[in-house]
Structure formats: structure tokens, C-alpha cells
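Appendix B. One record, verbatim.
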Amino acid sequence: MSYMSYPQRSTWLEFLGFPPGYGPWTYQLARLASAHIINGKTTTTGCISLQPSPDPDDRSQDRFVVLDWDGWSFSAVFDGHGGEETVDYVVQELPSLIHAALTKALADAGTTPLTPSTVSALLQSSIQDVDQALTDGVTRLFPDEATLTALTDEQIKSIINGPTNPNNLTILRCMRGTTALVSLVDPQKENLWVASLGDCQAVLGTKNSNGTWDATVLSVNHSGMNPAEVARIRNEHPNEPECVKFDRVLGAIAVTRAIGDHIFKLPVSYTRRVFMNCVPGFSISSKLEHLLPRNNSPPYLSALADVKHVALQPSTANTNTTESFLILCSDGLVDLYEHTNARKATLKEILTQWVHILGEYMDRRCAKVSDEADKDNAALVLLRHALMGGDMDNPDRLAQILTVEIPCRWMDDTTALVQTF
């Protein structure tokens, strides 16, 4: 395999037909990534989401939500896969479920502050409830395997297919999937909760007493690359050596926890009789004939989120000083670093590097000495760093990416939120 080396800055723009002195053009990144800032009552959130492929079939399946509930700050990143139906359903349903559960918990507590464990439990249960609702949608149509046996394929198709048939969307939501990364901050900015399900990442940056920045990883990487997750699945499915294969569940899916993906949660007859008769069908890279024989004792994927609580540092009297910030992102941002260094950095190294980069950026901004083009959107700072190959001073690389349209999905959907308290 051969690789093309790009000309140096002095010649590569001329190679593309531009006269000397032009470029590099990096200002388009903010537009392409839909960069914007959301100001809440107690937090400010920089947002970006990027999928540069011009093919409509490659449009991003990432989603994010930033809401303010009477001073409670809710943020979430969702990384959909296999299609958009599940992630769009979760974006619609999960925030309202969490809000309702939080409102009830506050009413029940009265004047007593909520305990951290109470909020952690309602985040976990709300995420599980959304996934259970998807399961219930299928079992409402087909309560058990005996029901499926009694129906012909044509009868099943008539029940689930048709562009105006609501049952079609019910089935599609179970065939697709999404990860979930949710954060919640109380109105006093004293408590932070992060619930993670899948392989999105969350890291908290806090300034310590000597003025340097510390990184605290608040997400758990639920994937076949995590030995703890592999051990859990193997323990749940003894005598099934292929329950995890090639670092993937049943040799097919990278994440070990997700909402949806019921091909890994329901008996195999539901896939053979229902999902495989659905139109449109699956959009997965693994061949079903290889996957299905391994599906012997579902569920293999979990919808139980890991929740971490952090007591936030009290803010200083100087309102111009940022003492802490939270980064939430889909795995696409991490993946951009995969081939940039001679030694592949670990996930913790990448997340720690982000905190140091943004910590310095926040310090410069607070000191009013920053002249960066990204203005106040810290999420755009991270995206620029990743696209420039982990180098904050490589605008040529970024300009090449932005000015050469590649008609294919050459990078994963990438979404990031940076929230300052």
C-alpha cells in the first residue's frame, strides 16, 4: 500500500490551483461543525457536532441535548448506530423521563436536599425504562416465541411493515441502537452526576490550589476492549466462548451496553422471524449468519448505566474565573487521535491532555489574553486539536481536511460539549 504525501504549505495550495499567499482556510470548521454556545442559568455549554461526508446516507447519527430545569443543568450526548430511529426516540423520551423522576424526587423530599444516591438511582432507572419501553413495544405485538411460531412470515410482514404503519417504527427502534452519556448539575453547582452507557467519554477538569488543572474521568468505557466488561459478559454466559469474539459482543458489536440493539437482547427467533422480515432491514457490518448461532442465552447487552457523583469545588468570588469544566463527547473525537502519533495514546492520556489544553485556554480567556479564533467555544478548541492531529499549530492539516471534499464517510460522527460551571 502506498501513501500520498501532501506538499508543504508553500506549495500545496498552489498544487490545488490557488496563487501564492492564499490560505490556509480553517474558519469554515465552526460552520461545518454547527458550533454554538448555549447559556443556561448556571452553566455555559460550547457545542460542536461534525460529520463531513456530503452523502445524505452518511449523515450523523450523533445527537446531543442541553436543557435547564429551574437551575438544574441537564446535558447529554447520544451516539446512534445502525440507523437513526433509536437515537431519535431516546432524545425525545429520555430527558422528559429524567425530568419527571427528578421533579417527583424533589417533591417527595420537600425541604430536605436530595442525597447523591437518590439522583444516581433515578438516572439509572430512567435509562433502563427507555430501553424497556422498546422491548415492550415488540412484546406487545409478539408476546412470546409461541406467538411467533403460530404466525407465517407473510402474517408477520403484514403486522410490521408499511410506510404509514406505526408498528414499523416500533420494530426499527429495536433493530437500531444508541449509547447514552448524561450529566446533571444541581442549581447550587455543588453536585455533578454523570451516567454513562456505551463508549462516549466524560472528563471533569478542576483547578487545584496551585493553579494547575486536574482531570477526573467520569465515564466508563463499555466496550469489548474493557477487560472488566468482557469478564462480566463471560461470567453471565459461561460455556459460551464466542459471547465475546474479536473484542466484540458475539463478534458483532463493539459496545457492551446500549439502548436498543435488541438483536442482542431477545431470543434469536425474534431476529429470524421479526427483525429479518422488517423493511427497511438491518444496517450492520457483521453477517447475520455468523452472529445468530452465537445467540444462545440473551440478553448479551446491558442497559444498566454506570453513574458517578462528584462534589464540585465551591466557586471563587471572582465570577470571571473558571474553576471547573466538564467535557462530554462521542467516541468519534477520541478516534481522531488513533493514527496521529508514533505511539497510540491511551484513552486516559487523551482525556487528560484535553483537560490541560482547555485549562490553559480557560486561564488565557479569563486573563483576557486569548486571541484564538474559536472565541468562547471550548468544544471547538478540542475539535481543532483533534483534526490537526493532536497539534494546536498545524492549520495546514486542518485546511486540507476542510477544503478537499471526500465523498465517503472517512471519520466517525463526532460530537462534543464543554460545560463550564
